[in-house]
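Propose amino acids for all 556 sites.
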């Protein structure tokens, strides 16, 4: 939500005692001949014509072709008109004191001139006076008085006052908080094309504040503000297209609006257009372009962009691979509390990538991320405690962090927690509890857990002994390339446990496990070969070749 104040501009007023001369000046001003207008009006102004004095103030204050801008001269003529009681001149004189134009900034003078004009019912001065009270400028802050002056101007149809009154109701400043009343005043201002009000009205429809939530209506108001160049509305309109809220989902259209906002310097838009280029949404994938936009947002301190730019440097996507530069951007994001950046910075310290290896520093960053619920960091911190890397070895602490990650469904942590229960490290030894955690990880497809669950069934630990169930879990792990499971599956076929005895399949699985680096399987394979025929060995070798070539899809 934003606050705005009245701009310095008032229409020309055709007043004065010397109507013919005044009209010639007015005619000249209407065709842009301000030098002639000045020539016609100056004698009138010097004779005290209030309208001519006011208009001279406008010409000098704004600067026009043929008349250089001169705030001191503008101030002089506004003051003369103001001292005759002309409300518009009093108001503009107030704005000149407020902005320090041709005179030192002086809120006491601002207050004086605004009040004189406001008490005549002049809406721009009323809204200006309201702003002084709302912000405590030259007066003690007083929201109730601000509301009083905004309301007087708003009820005259003055759009900026309507907008500011809407803000007061939205924030509950000087009035009871009332979203519906805020919507009413925003709407009146928005219908007069006040971009801030259009944006805020869109925001109210988006969130369902004071009106029923309506994404299509939100889009309508965001669009009106966006088409006026209002950057936050352009960004939000991009979000609506990206998410398909109130409009058909359209990444290309999202990119269009993100780009407009990004070119206005909106960091979130710069980040999002970088993301679109990073992943090829609505544009051709272009890592260099992604890195450029991420950098612009990152240099404004936008944490997500800093993190993603770090990733680009880590992976060498769109930039030269540079671990030190990755660390730099991760650190900036991590310092703002970005959990993923904290986790990755921990990884960099643990692995000595871009920084000297430092387990203590790794543990520090893992902890910060873990305390935010980042599962990978919780798991890695648990590993540090289990091993005593960078922290005193502490199985109970390891269990605590494994549990937090496991309860979020992180399979590797579930498996590790099962292992801690199986061994009784940091917790009372409990095979049934170990099985529970192994099963959760195994059902997610985690091969180590599938293998471990197979062992528990094979040995009857925490579950009734069940070779067929053991085979089921060994097979699932084996199909993911787990050499230990492949070896054990070979044993089950060799000995006929949970499956029909089958030396060919036993030899096949031993052979596959051996090819995956399991030395014991090579011995088992050779022993199996000694009790099988040459033809059976050849068939087992053929099956092993088919199984590996199919990536374990055809192993029967």
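Proposal:
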């Amino acid at each position: 939500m934003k606050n705005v104040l009245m701009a310095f501009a008032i229409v020309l007023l055709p007043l004065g005692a010397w109507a013919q001369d005044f009209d010639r000046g007015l005619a000249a001003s209407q065709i842009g001949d301000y030098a002639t207008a000045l020539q016609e009006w100056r004698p009138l102004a010097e004779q005290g014509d209030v309208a001519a004095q006011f208009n001279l103030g406008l010409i000098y204050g704004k600067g026009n072709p043929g008349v250089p801008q001169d705030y001191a001269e503008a101030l002089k003529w506004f003051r003369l008109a103001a001292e005759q009681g002309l409300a518009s001149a009093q108001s503009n004189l107030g704005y000149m004191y407020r902005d320090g134009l041709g005179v030192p900034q002086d809120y006491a003078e601002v207050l004086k001139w605004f009040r004189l004009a406001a008490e005549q019912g002049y809406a721009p001065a009323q809204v200006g006076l309201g702003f002084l009270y709302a912000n405590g400028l030259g007066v003690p802050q007083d929201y109730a008085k601000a509301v009083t002056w905004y309301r007087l101007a708003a009820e005259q149809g003055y759009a900026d006052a309507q907008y500011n009154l809407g803000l007061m109701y939205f924030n509950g400043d000087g009035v009871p908080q009332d979203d519906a009343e805020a919507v009413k005043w925003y709407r009146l201002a928005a219908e007069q094309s006040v971009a801030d009000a259009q944006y805020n009205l869109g925001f109210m429809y988006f969130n369902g504040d004071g009106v029923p939530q309506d994404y299509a209506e939100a889009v309508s108001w965001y669009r009106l503000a966006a088409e006026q160049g209002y950057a936050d509305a352009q960004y939000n309109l991009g979000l609506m297209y990206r998410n398909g809220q109130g409009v058909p989902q359209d990444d290309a259209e999202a990119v269009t609006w993100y780009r407009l906002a990004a070119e206005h310097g909106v960091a979130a838009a710069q980040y999002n257009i970088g993301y679109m280029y990073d992943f090829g949404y609505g544009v051709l994938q272009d890592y260099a372009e992604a890195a450029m936009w991420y950098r612009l947002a990152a240099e404004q301190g936008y944490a997500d962009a800093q993190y993603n730019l770090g990733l680009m440097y880590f992976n060498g996507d769109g930039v030269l691979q540079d671990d030190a530069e990755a660390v730099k951007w991760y650190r900036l994001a991590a310092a703002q509390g970005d959990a993923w950046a904290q986790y990755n910075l921990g990884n960099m310290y643990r692995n000595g990538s871009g920084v000297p290896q430092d387990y203590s520093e790794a543990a520090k960053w893992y902890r910060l991320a873990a305390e935010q619920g980042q599962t990978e960091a919780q798991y890695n911190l648990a590993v540090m405690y289990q091993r005593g890397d960078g922290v005193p070895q502490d199985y109970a602490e390891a269990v605590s962090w494994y549990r937090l990650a496991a309860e979020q469904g992180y399979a590797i942590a579930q498996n590790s927690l099962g292992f801690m229960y199986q061994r009784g490290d940091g917790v009372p030894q409990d095979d049934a509890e170990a099985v529970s955690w192994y099963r959760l990880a195994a059902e997610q497809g985690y091969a180590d857990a599938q293998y471990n669950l197979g062992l528990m069934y094979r040995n009857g630990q925490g579950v009734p002994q069940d070779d067929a169930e053991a085979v089921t879990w060994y097979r699932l792990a084996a199909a993911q390339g787990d050499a230990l499971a492949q070896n054990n599956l070979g044993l089950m076929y060799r000995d006929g446990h949970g499956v029909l005895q089958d030396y060919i399949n036993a030899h096949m699985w031993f052979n596959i496990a051996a090819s995956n680096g399991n030395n014991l399987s090579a011995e088992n394979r050779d022993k199996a070969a000694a009790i099988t025929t040459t033809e059976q060995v050849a068939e087992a070798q053929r099956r092993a070749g088919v199984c590996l070539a199919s990536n374990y899809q055809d192993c029967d």
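The domain at 1-120 is CATH 1.25.40.10 (Serine Threonine Protein Phosphatase 5, Tetratricopeptide repeat). The CA atoms of residues 154 and 161 lie 5 Å apart.
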